[in-house]
Amino acid sequence: MHPFPKTKIPTYNSGRLGANAGGPKTTLDAHSKALLFSPLTLRSITFKNRIGVSPMCQYSSTDGFPNAFHFSHISQFAIRGAGLVIVEATGVTPNGRITPNCLGLYSQSHADAFKPIVDFVKSQGCVAAIQLGHAGRKASTLSPFFTDNQYNALATEADGGWPNNVVGPSPIKQAETTADVIELTGDDIQSYVDAFVNAAKLADNAGFDVIEIHGAHGYLLHSFLSPFSNQRKDEYGGSLENRMRFPVAVAKAVRQVWPDDKPLFFRLSVSDWAKGGLTSEESVLVCRALKEVGVDLIDCSSGGVVAPEDPSKFFEPGYNVAFAEQIRVESGVATAAVGNITEAQQAEDILKEGKADLVLLAREFLRNPQWVLESAQKLGAEVEWPIQYRRGKPRI
Ligand SMILES: Cc1cc2nc3c(=O)[nH]c(=O)nc-3n(C[C@H](O)[C@H](O)[C@H](O)COP(=O)(O)O)c2cc1C
């Protein structure tokens, strides 16, 4: 059920209020040479600028359902001019959630609960995306809110967790504190492909424009790609061709049910940042296979299976940008760059230098939800503010 009365929301191109109010798109069009504020079209979806909000777990859900917090959290970025908002990692099955407080999309009731959020995001001229994933051997952990910001603490059944239903490619625990891992059989793997397909159909029912498949950060799909977590001897383990079989099968199956006119993204940990792990050279081949089955953009992240050999990497500005560039150039697929992108000029340079097609920001948006509108001003892009906030726009 829709949480609010069906109100017409005035948008910038409403004309006389009411004439076209609540219409499909507000125009926050930019008239500048800044590439950051130029549109990008993938399939039939046009992003009004190249700035996206990276998916961020909020650990604020019950039974996988979004609520008023998620509505407010996601909407704030759509109101303030982001071209794209990607909803946090959302489990395709109950046991695929990272914590008992993570979102899920495994029933029509879940899709119905997402719909008002999607409708509102789109009413602001922003593209609505959802990250669909399975937490694999990192599932059934406690929200960092309950552990003094420690990750990987086990959520027991008493905590609402499912420690006896944590799955992965091989019986290798993520950490001392996480659950024992049940090794998936070939039939199980097919059932998880089906779960992604089911969630993709539900995402379409909810009205999302883009799906991002979560293939990063040590969760189920990445755990098949990485030799650290995948030590199988069957057709899903060993060679790169075998390790990528399940992630590519998921992308292929999702593409088959996801409408042709809507883009499909895939977030990949391009490197495990550790000797013996997945390398960026291997990831180039993975991305070529993903492109072949209809993935339109690779969101280039890194790490998550093991601790990186050099943790200082994660503090460097734009620490994944070189991966986005390598994948874009060598796999011939569009990329998003993410990771310590905080400055307007930094983002603009990434695009201008051909290193990525989109930039995604996470923590900077938590610090400054006004980042898009402030960056427009810094780069001299003329961007209309939302009509409700127009009186706050600085006059130069
Ligand atoms: C609070 C928080 C929650 C996150 N949750 C997710 C998530 O749900 N899915 C995901 O792929 N990455 C997640 N990330 C990683 C971010 O999307 C992003 O890749 C990372 O923070 C680096 O970007 P940044 O330097 O702009 O923060 C999360 C990061 C933060 C800070």
Rg, Cα atoms, Å = 20 Å
Helices and strands, in order, run as EEEHEEHEEEHEHHHEHEHEHEHH
Strand count: 13
Overall average pLDDT: 94
How many DSSP H or I helices? Answer: 11
Termini Cα gap = 44 Å
Number of domains: 1
Largest sheet: 8 strands, parallel, barrel
CATH class (first level) name: Alpha Beta
Sheet-strand content, in percent, reads 5-15%
Q: What is the share of helical residues? A: 25-40%
The second-level CATH architecture is Alpha-Beta Barrel
Q: Which descriptor suits the 3D outline? A: globular
CATH topology: TIM Barrel
Pairing-aware structural class of the strands and helices? Answer: alpha/beta
The distinct bound ligands, ions and cofactors come out as:
flavin mononucleotide
Spans of at least 5 consecutive residues with low confidence: 16-30
Strand order of the largest sheet: 3-4-6-9-10-11-12-13
What is the name of the CATH superfamily? Aldolase class I
Domain NADH:flavin oxidoreductase/NADH oxidase N-terminal: 36-378
Organism: Rhizoclosmatium globosum
Cofactor: FMN
Protein name: NADH:flavin oxidoreductase/NADH oxidase
